[in-house]
């Protein structure tokens, strides 16, 4: 081989190697997402993220945890953030916003298609789904006992459920919703919470088998027959019902409570794919997929579900509009005080 030919060959190999290295580098772009674990993580990994990763040539690293875990992670990493997109319950997300842990969202046409319940003041976060907190009951057990289905938040006080009731603790959003609704039954609300504490301490606590925060343990207690009634969210109930277990969601006559699923791009990070992922999760197609597979109510007005798909899911302007919304601007500053009081007066 001539010297010139060898030079040309070496140059070609070098260019090829650089091209391959560049391609590998592009493929190694990583987007870190902090969100819920369990069946939600499974839905995201299997049904939602693969298409986005392929379209944007990015790999998503998933950091699983509940909302308080994610909030703590953001606070701990504040000086050197590792998370690009955070997904949390509305209560902890409002805390994150107050702490300056989120950055501005860019304007995009999809935001005009959202229900008002998904719009977060300040333009640093957006609702991407909605859950209704209500009651879950075992249909077969109730039928065997000749009991009517529960209809009210007052059912938590019925002594026939003694030792068969599960309520998440106050540190869990579902538990906080239950406390507020019990207060409302006796003339209170989140600004007058004393009646709620009294109801739990004096009446409901004697019915409670466990104040259980774990979705896995909640499911296990129902499947073993130890529990037959609980406070829980529509998405979790939908997920358990989809396994064939005979549970059903009840929207109490006083109203179910809205639990917003909220996403924000994290401050201190500037990955353009973070904004793109949030827009993608708000698209009608993804909203429908998550609703069908996991049970989050769509917040995009253009998302369509069949009557069968919408069973138990907050869907459409009429149903979503009827959900009770918590005043987090008041609750978050007093929540730690409530947690201490709950430990002392209810679970103590």
Helix content: 40-55%
Determine and state the CATH class of the largest domain.
Alpha Beta
Regarding quaternary structure, how should these chains be classified? single chain
Give the CATH topology of the largest domain: D-Maltodextrin-Binding Protein, domain 2
Global shape: globular
Proportion of beta-strand residues: 15-25%
In the CATH hierarchy, what is the architecture of the largest domain at level 2?
A: 3-Layer(aba) Sandwich
- CATH H-level homologous superfamily name of the largest domain: Periplasmic binding protein-like II
- Unreliable stretches (pLDDT < 50, length at least 5) are 2-26
Alpha-carbon distance between the termini? 86 Å
**Chain-averaged pLDDT:** 91
Using only C-alpha atoms, the radius of gyration works out to 24 Å
Give a quick account of the main beta sheet: strands, pairing sense, barrel closure.
Answer: 9 strands, mixed
| Number of helices, counting only DSSP H or I runs of 4 residues or more | 13
Look at the helices and sheets and give the structural class. alpha/beta
Number of strands: 9
Give, in order, the helices and strands. HEHEHEHEHEHHEHEHEEHHHH
The tally of domains stands at 2
């Amino acid at each position: 081989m001539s010297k010139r030919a060898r030079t040309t060959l070496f140059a070609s190999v070098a260019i090829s190697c650089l091209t391959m290295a560049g391609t590998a580098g592009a493929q190694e772009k990583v987007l870190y997402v902090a969100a819920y674990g369990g069946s939600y993580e499974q839905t995201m990994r299997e049904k939602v993220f693969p298409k986005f990763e392929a379209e944007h040539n990015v790999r998503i690293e998933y950091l699983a945890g509940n909302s308080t875990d994610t909030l703590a992670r953001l606070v701990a990493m504040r000086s050197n953030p590792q998370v690009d997109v955070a997904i949390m319950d509305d209560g902890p997300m409002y805390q994150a916003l107050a702490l300056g842990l989120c950055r501005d969202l860019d304007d995009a046409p999809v935001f005009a298609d959202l229900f008002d319940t998904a719009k977060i003041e300040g333009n640093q976060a957006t609702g991407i789904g909605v859950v209704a907190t209500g009651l879950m009951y075992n249909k077969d057990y109730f039928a065997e006992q000749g009991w009517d289905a529960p209809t009210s938040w007052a059912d938590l006080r019925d002594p026939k459920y003694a030792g068969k009731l599960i309520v998440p603790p106050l540190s869990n959003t579902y538990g906080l919703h239950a406390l507020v609704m019990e207060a409302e039954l006796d003339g209170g609300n989140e600004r007058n919470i004393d009646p709620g504490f009294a109801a739990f301490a004096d009446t409901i606590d004697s019915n409670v088998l466990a104040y259980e925060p774990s979705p896995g343990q909640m499911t296990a207690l129902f499947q073993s027959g130890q529990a037959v009634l609980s406070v829980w969210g529509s998405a979790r109930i939908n997920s358990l019902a989809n396994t064939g277990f005979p549970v059903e969601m009840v929207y109490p006559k006083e109203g179910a409570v809205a639990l917003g699923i909220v996403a924000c791009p994290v401050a201190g990070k500037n990955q353009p794919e973070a904004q793109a992922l949030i827009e993608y999760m708000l698209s009608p197609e993804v909203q429908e997929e998550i609703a069908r597979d996991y049970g989050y109510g769509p917040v995009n007005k253009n998302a369509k579900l069949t009557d069968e798909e919408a069973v138990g899911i907050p869907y459409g302007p009429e149903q979503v509009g009827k959900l009770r919304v918590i005043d987090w601007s008041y609750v978050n500053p007093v929540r730690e005080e409530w947690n201490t009081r709950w430990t002392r007066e209810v679970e103590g």
